[in-house]
Each structure stands twice: as C-alpha cells, then as structure tokens.
Design goal:
Strand content: 5-15%
Largest sheet: 7 strands, parallel
Number of domains: 2
CATH superfamily of the largest domain: Glycogen Phosphorylase B
Distance between the termini: 15 Å
Strand order of the largest sheet: 3-2-1-4-5-6-7
Radius of gyration: 22 Å
Number of strands: 13
Number of helices: 15
Helix content: 40-55%
CATH class of the largest domain: Alpha Beta
C-alpha cells in the first residue's frame, strides 16, 4: 500500500521508541516488522532504543537505529531523555512518534509536547494496577493521539481502568509471520534434527507448552494435567528459558519427579527453530493463569495446523475457534485441561486434517503480520491527516 509524501514532497518519517532490542518478544519483533513495513511503503523508519541483537535486523530492512538510554527508570535519566528525544525529532525531521513501553513513554510524551509532533502509543499488556501511583505510571500509555491495543481484551481493559474513549483506541492484533510459520516450508530434516536433539522416541504423541519459565505461564498446571492422564506413551515439552528464575525451574523439576514423570515431561531451555518445533508437535498448550494480552503461541500453533488448548480468558478467546481449531479450558483447572488433552489426542487423521486446514485459513485471514502492518500504517496516516500533514 503506497503511503503519501508530506507537504514538502518528502516521505513521512516515523520514529519508534522502545527500551531495547535485545530479545525476541512481541514488542521487539513488532518494532522491526513495522519498521520494515514503513520502509517498504516508501517512508523513513527510525528506532530509538538502548540497542541489542535486533539492531542488525533493523539495518536489513533499511531502518535507522539511534542508541539512547531509554530503558532507564531513573527519573533523572528519564528527564534528560526528553531533551535527547527533542534533539533527535528535530534533527531527523520526525513526523510521528510511536512509543511501545512505559519508561520511555514518559520522556517521549514530553518530547512530543515540546516539538508538537503527534504521538501514537501501543498498549501491550494489562500491567500492574495495584495502587494509584502505579496506575498513574501506566497511564502514559494512553496519552497518544491514537492508542493501539493488541487485542479487544486489552482495549476493554484500557477503557475500564483508564477511561480512554473508544474513538481513540485502535485494536490491531499482533500478527503471525505466515511465511515463516507455514507447515509447507518446514522441511522434514529440520523436524528430524529437533526430535534427535530432544531425544524423542518415534511414534509417541508430543505435547508442547512454549513460553518462558515463569509461574503465570501455567507449566505447573500442565504437569498436574499430564499426571491426571496417567499415560506414559506421550511426551510433554516445556520449551522456554528460565531467564534467571532458577528457583521456579527447580520447583518444576520437583513437581515432575513427585508425579514420576521424568520420562514423560521434559524442560527444553531454548529453541531456535520454533516452526519446526510446532510441526514436530501434535498438540500446543497455553495454560496461562493470568490472561494473555494476545497469545502468540496459540496463533503460531494454528498457523502451523496444530490443535491448540488455551486458558479461557484474555486474548486467546479472540484467536481460537472453540471446538473447531482448539479448546478453551478454565484457568488453573488441571482436570479440565487433562480432559481437553485427551479429547485432542483422540482425533483421527481425517479430523486432524480438517482442523489443520481450518486453523491455517483462520490465522492467515485474521492474524497475519501483513494485516498488522497495514493497519498500523493506516493509524499513522490517520493521525498525520488530522494534523493536516499527510
């Protein structure tokens, strides 16, 4: 989709601001994807962060990175960041700023006020709202002229807790890279390599819960559900880094041993080839005890044609077709989860094939990366047009 130049004939310049580019989470990956979309549409894409591994990805999509200490929550650093951002906005003739995290959002908001440049924010999660001060800190994510919510669930949360009018909220679901998560593009060699690395026996059903090892992701609930099944002819993989949570990892290991599931449940620290991991898997689980803001795992699983089971709350309600592409179970209910797992594993070949075809079409139609990027660029144009600048 071609985007209009500014009044002086130059293409729009968009600056995205986030703490860092060191991980592969939704905020970081989404920033790179939007930067690529801006460049492909003829605009100029800038990103300000403390840097990280994904800076290289930005250069590959013709975006420019500026290293600033915007991850800091130190009030004095945040205050100085206002001037740093003002200087960057003026020097690079930025037309619109898009901020994706709370700490840099405060500096960015005041920089935009000084420069009269429009601000767009993305609300990525529910955040903690335990007291007035915390709610005030979070509220900066609602200060944009337009605010993007990554799911209808998040949009509703913002309306209820921060009083943001509906006309300022744009729901744009996170998008799946359907070129990467395409079962037809994952070779048998990649799948075999993973199965070998993880020492998986042939012919046994594989259940996978992808996600960092943190309590609210529900690994303990899944272990209890596997124990309730009473089956030893399956394998359950908990795929994700503990990110320093050694105590929680040890708790998981003790839970596994207490159920005598050492041969059934395995913790896999990291996986560099998630498309192959999904293709290797017979069933994908998201057992989160807190609502997922969006639920990337269940979308990627469906994109790969796999049945999915998720907790019945948050963004998962928007991405699963219950009984058609997967199942929703009450949060924290290991017995209900066990029943859903048993139901999924009993699907015959014809039923699994039908589910796979439906799931793939569902994700490609409603939750693709291309749709996310196009809708975000539309928000930029909408905001610029309101200023008479597009």
């Amino acid at each position: 989709m071609k985007r209009p130049p500014q009044q002086d004939g130059t293409p729009p310049t968009v600056l995205q601001v986030l703490p860092a580019l060191g991980g592969s989470g939704g905020v970081e990956r989404g920033t790179v994807e939007i930067a690529s979309a801006i460049s492909q549409a003829g605009g100029r894409a800038l990103v300000a962060s403390e840097g990280g591994l994904l800076v290289h990805d930005l250069t590959r999509v013709d975006a420019e990175h500026f290293t600033l200490p915007v991850a800091s929550k130190n009030p004095f650093v945040m205050y100085r960041n206002v001037s740093r951002l003002v200087e960057l906005i003026k020097k690079e003739r930025v037309d619109i700023v898009h901020v994706r995290s709370r700490a840099p959002a405060w500096s960015t908001y005041f920089a935009c006020q000084r420069t009269k440049v429009p601000l767009v924010t993305t609300f990525h999660g529910t955040y903690s709202i335990g007291n007035w001060l915390k709610r005030k800190y979070n509220s900066v994510m609602t200060y944009g002229e337009s605010m993007i919510a990554i799911s209808t669930f998040i949009g509703g949360h913002v309306r209820r807790h921060y009083g943001v009018p509906v006309d300022r909220i744009r729901v744009i679901h996170r998008g799946v890279d359907i070129d990467r998560f395409d079962p037809e593009k994952v070779s048998a060699e990649r799948v075999i390599k993973l199965a070998t690395d993880w020492r998986l026996p042939d012919g046994v059903p594989i259940i996978m819960l992808p996600g960092r090892l943190t309590r609210w992701k529900g690994q303990l609930v899944l272990i209890d559900a596997i124990a309730a099944l009473g089956r030893t002819d399956i394998r359950c993989l908990l795929v994700g880094s503990n990110q320093g949570r050694e105590d929680y990892r040890r708790e998981l290991e003790k839970k596994i041993m207490s159920h005598n599931l050492e041969e059934v449940v395995r913790i896999v620290d990291h996986c560099d080839d998630m498309p192959a991991a999904y293709k290797l898997t017979d069933l994908v689980i998201s057992a989160s005890t807190d609502p997922e803001a969006f639920g990337r795992v269940v979308c990627e699983g469906q994109a790969m044609g796999r049945p999915v089971i998720a907790s019945d709350h948050g963004g998962s309600r928007e991405t699963i077709l219950p009984g058609i592409t997967g199942w929703l179970t009450p949060s924290g209910d290991s017995a209900a989860l066990a029943h859903a797992i048993e139901t999924a594993l009993k699907l015959d070949h014809a039923a699994r094939t039908k589910l796979a075809q439906t799931a793939i079409k569902h994700i490609r139609k409603n939750f693709s990366k291309t749709q996310m990027c196009d809708k975000t660029l539309d928000v930029y144009n909408e905001v610029l047009a309101a200023r008479g600048r597009a």
